[in-house]
Amino acid sequence: MTPAAPEQLDLTACDQEPIRTPGSIQPHGFMLTLSPAPALEVLQASANLAQWTGLDAGQAAGKPMARVVGEAAHARLAPELSRGALGARPLYLGTVSLENGAHFDVLAHLWDGLVIAEFERVDRPQPADFRHLYPLISDFLAKVNQHASIPALTDLAARHVRSVTGFGRVMVYQFDPDGHGRVVAESKADDYDSYLGQSFPASDIPAQARELYTLSPIRLIQDANYQPAALVPARNPVTGAANDLSFAALRSVSPVHLQYMRNMGTLASMSVSLIVKGKLWGLISCHNATPCPVPVEQRTACEQLGQILALCIESREDAAELQFRLDVRRVMVELMGHLTKGSDFLENMSRVFPELLRFARAGGVAIVADERIMTYGDTPDEEAIRALSTWLALQGHTEVFHTSHLAASYPPARDMIRNASGLLALPISRIHKHYLLWFRPELVQVIEWAGNPYEKTAPPGAPTQLSPRQSFAAWRETIHGHSLPWHQAEIELTVEFRSALLGIALERAEQMAELAEELGRANKELEAFSYSVSHDLRAPLRHIVGFSDLLLESNGAENPDRRQRFLKNIKESARLAGKLVDDLLSFSQMGRAALRPTTVDMNDLVSACIDKLGIDMGSRNVDWHLEHLPAVCADPSFLHLAVYNLLSNAVKFTGGRDPAVIRIWADEGEHETVFHVADNGAGFNMDYVHKLFGVFQRLHRMEDFQGTGIGLANVRRIVERHNGRVWAESVQGEGATFSFSIPKQTPTP
Q1: Parallel, antiparallel, or unpaired for β 229-232 and 218-221?
Q2: Residues 6+ apart with CB under 8 A from 355
Q3: Order of strands across the sheet with 735-743?
């Protein structure tokens, strides 16, 4: 195959060239495609076969390999080709000598249904000597630990590769997310131009070329002026398609790229891929002004060094990434600590504005809560922020939105480039227009390109075979309207921060719901209190007034028994009113006084309550059944009041029984201890059990059983303050059982 005529070069579509199936090879060696072992029949040969072996390529097809390369070479290669070690990557099989005395290093790999054997011309008859590989790698590894930074490591690698290959210039070239490359390290001879710090546009190495560099880690062009040697026949006999030479060392390259090299003053080049975490991080790119062969042992050494450099880059980047994430997370933890202290969410956010700036490395921050806007640092004005938040809401951005070039997405941002070229927007509500906005100022960037990347067409009169960029002279571009890019860790941790904020909001909602429930309960208690004041407390006071009037009306009447009865009723009514006030005061204190938990001997506590009740029981016949009770951790004063109320109730509602039987026992569970008080008294209707522990709730007539209706409410409040529960069961007319639990952990004071 002859090279394309200059006027045939399509310089605008080099990113669509079939670079994996060029149909030809570089002519510093020859290629045979073979059927798999053991047949090893020649299926194709490069057109330059006659130059190296004296046998025409067209005559080689269908012959055994021995007929093409000679019996001696066949005897040397056949065992290597037959032992099943071939894969997609070329394997060095050794050095062979043909019958004409020419020596070749042989590489082979299995791909596209063929054994692809490559014969590279060398001057030596002996195999490649890899002994110098180990000192090179050993020296590089010894110096790696002395150079912690990536720039220092890449500089070290550039110098090592140049010393091995003898190229005039070796660069380490790093790709950015857009595919542009920047020279981060360089080692060169004095008479070579320097590209250190300069950038090359992504079009210089199109996406398909970068993909191929990822698959095949090394590529060599010995002489940019070579004439390619086509494969004969042109198509793969197995697949019927053009041969895929992605992994072939002799693969021919694009004529556009060859012209690119010549324009750059480079006639030989070699590239070693730097693969970090499975992606193409960059290249070790070697240039020479004259043709330069690089034997297989030197290429292997450079490939190994590139792999070590890639591992070093990965470890450094991982360490830097981890440190960055730790720093951002540390600020986030500090933020969350402040945000949980107060009840007003927006007020809390405004108190941590400095930490919010540090969290996102921003110049300004704003909180938008519907029409309310709070700002800190260097931000756009409120009207601009309000319009921006409206735009975000209309765009439906319900997740984190970020950009380092806001004007490209939101044209009005052109008027606020100075302090809002970059935006990180965090929606903090799915219902309302609530946003947390971080703004980054403009970061004016000056990029030094190796030639003008926008010079797409050749000037009038220029030869048509020249590439779009004829010059590689430094060309500076100033970029406006962009901010410092948002780090991936900042975006991910912002998402995490949003989840934490929603968690705080949910906790606040739960607290409000709990408060609402408590308020509802308090309102019911207040209603009961109002009823009590209007009914229960009014009744004894009315009795006092009524009997006092009777005393006044009977003034002078000589009936001492009647006067005594009036005074007794007045005294009893006053006592009942006082008891009601005392119980109300006690109930109020249950919700305010702090608990002082300690170990309580329940046997002693119940015995003390029974002794206290004995004064009021008089001569009643009460049969107490007290089982052994376990100790608990509780406030002894409060617990004494609760137990006393339950036992007092049992005594009161067994007033019509002789004997009254009251039983006290306990059940121990894994997490709580449950105490029971059972009696054989009047009991109650279970249809109304839900009212039993309410304030001033009675299930019996006051005339039948005296009381204020506060005792059981006190029991419930005391038990719940200990994180326990209280309930009751009954059969009306047969008695009732009241139960309460005390957890086995210390209650919260």
Answers
A1: unpaired
A2: 331, 334, 335, 338
A3: 622-626, 660-668, 672-679, 735-743, 726-731
CA angle in degrees (0–180, nearest 5) for 198-199-202? 165
Please name which of 441, 443, 424 lies closest in space to residue 366, comparing C-alpha atoms. Answer: 424
Q: Tokens 């207040």 identify what position?
A: 526
DSSP 41: B
Q: Cβ distance 212 to 279 under 8 Å? A: no
Q: How would you label 683-705 residue by residue, b for 16+ Cβ within 10 Å and e otherwise? A: bbeeeeeeebbbbbbbbeeeeee
Low-confidence stretches of the chain (pLDDT < 50) are 1-12, 457-468, 534-535, 696, 699-705, 707-708
Cβ 316 vs Cβ 149: under 8 Å: yes
- How far is residue 115's CA from residue 38's CA, in Å, rounded to a whole number? 11
The phi and psi torsions of 627 (rounded to 5 degrees) equal -85, 170
Specify the length of the chain in residues: 749
Q: What is the pLDDT of residue 184?
A: 93
- Concatenating the DSSP letter of every residue in 366-431 gives EEEETTEEEEEES---HHHHHHHHHHHHHHT--S-EEES-HHHH-GGGGGGHHHHSEEEEEE--SS
Dihedral of the CA atoms 504, 510, 512, 515 (nearest 10)?
A: -140
Integer angstrom CA distances of residue 371 from 174, 177, 289, 435, 543: 47, 38, 67, 11, 62
Contact residues for 357 (Cβ-Cβ < 8 A; gap 6+)? 363, 364, 365, 376, 377, 438
Pair type for strands 632-634 and 598-600:
antiparallel
| Cβ–Cβ < 8 Å for 373, 390 | no
Closest CA to 606 of 649, 642, 634: 642
> Strand 434-440 vs strand 422-427: parallel, antiparallel, or unpaired?
antiparallel
Angle at 537 between CA 535 and CA 538, to 5 degrees: 60
**Does residue 140 contact residue 303 with C-beta atoms inside 8 Å?**
no
CA pseudo-torsion sign 36, 40, 43, 49: positive
Say whether 550 sits in a helix, a strand or coil.
helix
501 vs 370: CA distance, rounded Å: 17
Tell me how far apart the alpha carbons of residues 547 and 528 are, in angstroms, rounded to a whole number: 28
DSSP one-letter string for 58-98: HHHTTSBHHHHH-HHHHHHHHHHHHSS---SS-EEEEEEE-
**DSSP states of 303-342:** HHHHHHHHHHHHHHHHHHHHHHHHHHHHHHHHHHHHHTS-
- What's residue 599's pLDDT? 92
CB proximity list for 592: less than 8 A, separation 6 or greater: none
List, in sequence order, every residue forming a beta bridge with 199; answer none if it has no partner. 182, 449
> pTM above 0.90?
no
SS3 at position 149:
coil
- In sequence order, what are the residues at sequence separation of 6 or more whose Cβ sits closer than 8 angstroms to the Cβ of residue 227? 2, 3, 27
Query: What does the pLDDT look like over 642-670, one tens digit per residue?
Result: 898 899 888 888 877 888 899 999 999 98
In terms of C-beta distances under 8 Å and separation of at least 24 residues, what long-range contacts does 312-319 make, across chains too?
Answer: 312/144, 312/150, 312/153, 313/150, 313/153, 313/154, 313/274, 313/276, 313/281, 314/276, 314/277, 316/148, 316/149, 316/150, 316/153, 317/150, 317/276
For residue 367, give every residue at least 6 positions away whose Cβ sits within 8 Å of its Cβ, in sequence order, or none. 346, 349, 350, 373, 374, 375, 435, 436, 437
Q: How many CB atoms lie within 10 A of CB 659?
A: 11
| Cα–Cα distance for residue pair 470/597, rounded to 1 Å | 88
DSSP labels for 195-256? Answer: -TT-EE-GGGS-HHHHHHHHHS-EEEES-TT---EEEESSB-TTTSSB---TT-TTB---HH
Please, what is the average pLDDT of the chain?
82
